[in-house]
Amino acid sequence: MRTIDAGKIQTAYDQARDLYAEYGVDTEKAMNALVKIPISLHCWQGDDVGGFESDAGLTDGGILVTGNYPGKANTVPQLQQDLEKTFSLLPGKHRLNLHAIYGEFDERPVDRSKIEPRHFAGWVAWAKANGIGMDFNPTAFSHPKAVDGFTLASYNDEIREFWIDHHIACRKIGAYIGKELDNTCVTNIWIPDGFKDSPIDRHTPRQKLIESLDRIIAEKLDPKHNLDAVECKLFGIGSESCVIGSHEMYLGYAISRGTVLCLDAGHFHPTEVISDKISSVLQYIDRVLLHVSRGVRWDSDHVVVLSDELQAIAQEVVRNDYLDRVNVGLDFFDATINRLAAWTIGTRCMIKALLMALLEPTQSLRTMEIEGDYTGRLAMLEELKTMPHGAVWDYYCQRESVPVGSTWLDEVRQYETDVLSQR
Questions:
Q1: Catalytic residue ranges
Q2: What are the residue boundaries of the structural domains of the chain, listed by start?
Q3: Which of 116, 217, 365, 391 has its CA 20 to 30 Å from the CA of residue 253?
Q4: Between the CA of residue 330 and those of 19, 45, 128, 292, what are the distances in Å?
């Protein structure tokens, strides 16, 4: 395995620290803030959104994952092993975001309306052993009762009742997870409901969705254990013309019902960004859940990279002091590359973006803006782009005892040889 000389990392960091100090930035304070920000890793990157209900994996009404890279996790222990390896490559302490289809069902089929906390007791024990928190999601796809593209907004009473029962069960599981771990679980609702072609009636399905959601969240749960979130979308495969749970629909719902609003970076028009929405929606609601993704052309979930938009998302959260009001989660899936590498690249990029935002002289920039010194603001922002944030990042990784630079890739490739290739 390659290593990078610790002395060189220290020297580079010392120089960077002094340079940032000239701009009034305390690099130690930035790192101490960063280590407290957990990123919620999405379990579905590890097995291509297959879950463990059956061996069938994704079925009709499912989600499209491209590629067939070898080494996919096929069991709960395999997925947990892969997650543990990934967590070991990330600085800081992070979380797991679990979908309902990832329970341990003991080879006895349990339909989704009947799942219980006991089916996730093993995951809770694993999370306790690893000292991490967990988030949860109902799974409203890849099911015979989702093949027509409608669940909670369905005109069919039987189908709608089934999915209401499923979501109620998932809230109870989320509350169980949060209580057992003494760490609040965010239970996020996303449904695929929508029309491929232009509908005559957009009102009625949305009315039915509101009625379904109201029944789902009717039971008051301790917010220390569970927070409810609703996730909007512009369009998707099979719902190009109308998504029932649109941004406006769920924003209104979150404001009127006091839920968390989930903003997914891959769920909007290619010219639309969620970084601009964060400060707007937080004027009206208490908390936002971010699903950090990378949309390409249209509805998609590509591996997160250190793009301008990712940096803008982190800047909005940090500059406006929203760290206590924003939960950061990831949502992408790519089976064309090593799955652990996808997790690691995306998560490390998210952490890097947050570090870069924390290394800004925010108060100085805000003062320039208030005083109308837009020239100074622009000049400062451009100078910050070439500041040695990479040296601080390397030192932060070394401080947190995780691989520095690209040396993490050596560990992933060795893991692929030792573990993934044997599956």
A1: 190, 231, 233, 264, 267, 291, 299, 301, 331
A2: 1-25+360-423, 28-358
A3: 116
A4: 32, 10, 21, 5
